[in-house]
Amino acid sequence: MEAVGSWQDKLKDRIPEELGREIDIFETQMKLRRRGEVDERLFAETRLRRGVYGQRYDNGHRHDGTQNRELAYRDHPTKGPETVWDAPGMLRIKIPYGKLTADQTDVLAELSEDYADHISHVTTRQDIQLHFVHIDDTPDIQRRLAAVGITTREACGNSVRNITACHLSGVCKTEEFDVTPYAEALKEFLLGHPDVQDFGRKMKPAFSGCAHEACGLVNMHDVGYIAKTREVDGQVQRGFEFYVGGGLGAIPHDAKVLTEFVTEEELLPLTQAVCRVFARLGEKENRGRARIKFLVAKLGIEEFKKLVFEEREQLPHDPRWTAYIDELPDYDEKPLRPPVPLQVNGEHTPEFKAWYETNVRAQRQEGYAVATIKLPLGDATGDQMRAIADIAREFVGDAIRLTVEQNIVLRWVSEADLPALFEALAAVDLAAPGAETIADLTSCPGTDTCKLGIAASRGLVAELTNHVGHLNGGTDPALKGLRIKASGCFNSCGQHHVSDLGFYGISRKKGGRLVPHFQVVLGGKWMENGGSFGLPTLAIPSKNIPEVVKRVTDRFLQERNENETFHEFIDRWGKVEVKAFLQDLTEVPAFEEDPSFYSDWGDPRVFTMEDYGEGECAGEIVPLVEFGLQSSEREVFEAQLYLDAGDMDRAKAMAYKAMLTAAQALVKTEYLDVTDDPDHIVTEFRTRFHETKRFHDKFAGAKFANYLFQTHESGGNGGRPEQARDQVQEAQLFIEAAYKVYERIGTQGAPA
Question: What's the pTM?
């Protein structure tokens, strides 16, 4: 057996210092929460910002879904009375613009087997989710991810989420240019940026290489960028059409144009200005209206635009805004093998031909193709992920990407290698045809694991998958390109609003019993970046949804005009006629007549809403000052640990840092732009809280403030080593005083 800690030793030098420090901090916060020294509301948002969710089921058994149930702690087997969480949850892993290397894919396979249920789940925003993960294991998982350059930071919570982009960026025949390096630059700039830490809800960005395809889905994102070029003084200039305020959820909003062209130089600062306006003016009390789409709707796009550009003018210069531009020529994804055309008239099996027709797309680089691996329900086993890594090493190197339709693509496949690639994929059950067709259905986790799930979207999609191949023999080209998507509730994680046939979970009562239903949404436009939203029609019992799909597609084939799209057909058909056409399917037989209607797809139990709970998509709204004060408490706790270990210099340094963090948190209540520079923090604190006597305790006077000033004057490490204990205690008193000031601010209103 491998010695405990041996893998940690092997990875130690491979973990970037900053990522390693973040994980150490999270682990310390977990310890403080166990000891009852961190408020649960604050810790919930903290763990969510590390991608750690609660989930609904506990290995197939219904569960209340909380990650850390107050009444369900148990003693740790080795730590005695220190409690641990006993409810498994979910870990969301950010994969920016879906790009993976073979080594990263291997690690995901290992983690799914070592800590989860052997499944890596690809989401509709190019993330990976591991389910049935124990929270105590998450720091170790995060370290193993960090060693291959992956972070879970801000994968959830009230923050900037994963930045998505077209999976064909750089190889698509119709794109303006490759948006990948721009998505990377924005990811690096916004991750952990102080201006994105005080949102009322999440913000989701997306990049698209063109306006007419679907890959980027800019129209349904909080901020979005569509690649554009223009000619200036005879030179081609790159930039983006910049969108804001899109979103799905219960109330879908089309994104609005902030500016028709933002240059490379202005991309990052203008996005920063949008974030600052959202942080300052976005809703903080009502979570249901705290997304940026509601702020844009409230102000109007012209007023919002005015505020953003005013904010941009006031921003202090940041060299990172343009530093990435010099590196753009260096970004170039390289093929592993030379381009060799496929012998079209060669001896190919029917299975290969079917797969080639739907799962292979020619790149703009002659002789190369993109091959799509269709993942049912977005799931890949550990063995399959490991096989994908090995297959990639053989054929394409590190050119792997996740898609927003929950698939995986291999880019830069030399066309002559396609038959061998197909055989390799078929050997591990990954060569199913039908990618990006009506046979490639999308679903959110639904009631399988999500606390907000009402109906079993995954169960429905699994059932519909068995039906769609038989629609009109599955051969009519008019049906082939349709999209079917399902969500477990109205929040549209399954993207039902922008699909041709969309469904979201609801419930109805019949004879005093609950019956799972789906609301039917027809005629959404998948192309043009999710160009328009579908038409809600009526609620249909879950068990009748397959018949809905059959009836609607049959009528489309019978009555469509020449070259009429499904979106156009539904618009012409009209809501009144659609409802009349499907009305008889709303009927629910009595329980005694057909009890199957009272259970959901894939779940034989009688349907219930007893385990429905509050979602954790964004956690609770926690003021920025509370994060700062909690960080100062964690730092003084670390100072105590150094003190106990006899490391006096580090104890003093950490105590000093704790005071600076608390002071900075208070200053940010009225001056968000205070920097991390100690001189700047102390100067602003002195002006705003010491000289005004707002920090002074009525018993101690200026004493607590002077603890900070004296330590700062000594550089944080003055005096004899044995004075470290005093400095740690002074830091603790300073933090307590900071909390009292914050409490007064809370009762009296924010200071002027």
Answer: 0.85
